[in-house]
Amino acid sequence: MALIISILLTVSPYLARVYEYMPAPGQFVNVLPLATADDTPQTMAAKAEAAIAYNAGKTVCLGAWGGYIVFGFDHPVVNSGDDYDFRIKGNATYASYAQDTTRKGGASEPGIVLVSYDANDNGLPDDAWYELAGSEYSSPQTIRHYAVTYTRPNGLQDVPWTDNRGGNGVVPRNEFHQQDYFPLWAPDELTFTGSRLAPNAVDEGENGEHSFILYCYDYGYADNHPNKTDGCKFCIRWAVDQNGLPKDLPAIHFVKVYTAVQQVCGWIGETSTEITGAEDLHPDMPFPDDPSETDLSPMPNANSQPQTAKILRDGQFLILRGEKAYTLTGQTLW
Ligand SMILES: [Ca+2]
Ligand SMILES: [Ca+2]
Ligand SMILES: [Ca+2]
Q1: Residue ranges per domain, the chain?
Q2: How many angstroms does the Cα of residue 96 sit away from the middle of ligand 2?
Q3: What is the signed CA dihedral for 8, 14, 18, 23, rounded to 10 degrees?
Q4: What pTM did the predictor assign?
Q5: b/e per residue 299-317 (b: at least 16 CB within 10 A)
Q6: What is the distance in A from the centroid of ligand 1 to the CA of 247?
Q7: 27-65 confidence digits (pLDDT tens)
Q8: In angstroms, what is the span from residue 272 Cα to ligand 3's centroid?
Q9: Which of 84, 90, 99, 333 is most buried, taking the most CB atoms under 10 A from its CB?
Q10: 284-326: pLDDT as tens digits
């Protein structure tokens, strides 16, 4: 009697896991997703995951500057080398009435994106992070090594913050959102670090009316351009290290996004990045029928030069880029 073992190995193109969700204070915090006094960092990560994993399509709000989420896929997203690799979905829109017609604008709430490779192969995002250098990366208006500390107010009050440059402000309450704006599960002081992009909002109202247009940055930020545009797609080859030098990653396992501007737009409140999903734009090739097969299989994106290919050798997947080959855990084989 033959024992037939059928192993069905599938990968999802969509974001599969949320490892961490720590928003800064904001008008949608404790609501998207819903939080209670009993929640913990673990339960909130699970709620964020339920909202956006596997194309669930709900919304997770990162709050004011610095608030972040860490998510991943159920497989490594391969660096195609010459094409977009993944998409992050948000709720950015263009406004037809924006007065500056030289650029797109509307409701753009840019988030800085970092990627990480599971170099120690433990399935956890505890490895080095690399920022994807978006269009504002080298702008003189981008503030690096920025830090903000938010302090839990007494009761339902504006949330005060101070930064590491002598600045301060508040995340103001508004009449539309009556819940606590400070994450219920967080410590009373919340400090975030990162880079801060210049404010992107322009008040185009007239005669005492306010009409805020949040203009899009060119490329490389989450929740910056609408989901059907290339503006929400990302290339792993944009990764840079802490010194701004390009980092050649064969693939990435984890993505971190944080709200990149610190700005309040009158009655529409603070600017906060939202995430509604993410997707590998060239999801994993099918496993070969015969696991001993060693034929090269070009990546699905056949229009481009197949700089990246995968090969199954001795039951192990390898990543080929140009002349080089890596294991999925980043070891260079040749
Ligand atoms: Ca790891
Ligand atoms: Ca928002
Ligand atoms: Ca948004």
Answers
A1: 17-280, 285-334
A2: 19
A3: -170
A4: 0.84
A5: bebeeeebbbbbbbeeeee
A6: 17
A7: 999 999 999 999 999 999 999 999 999 999 999 999 999
A8: 6
A9: 90
A10: 633 223 333 333 333 333 333 333 444 444 444 555 555 666 5
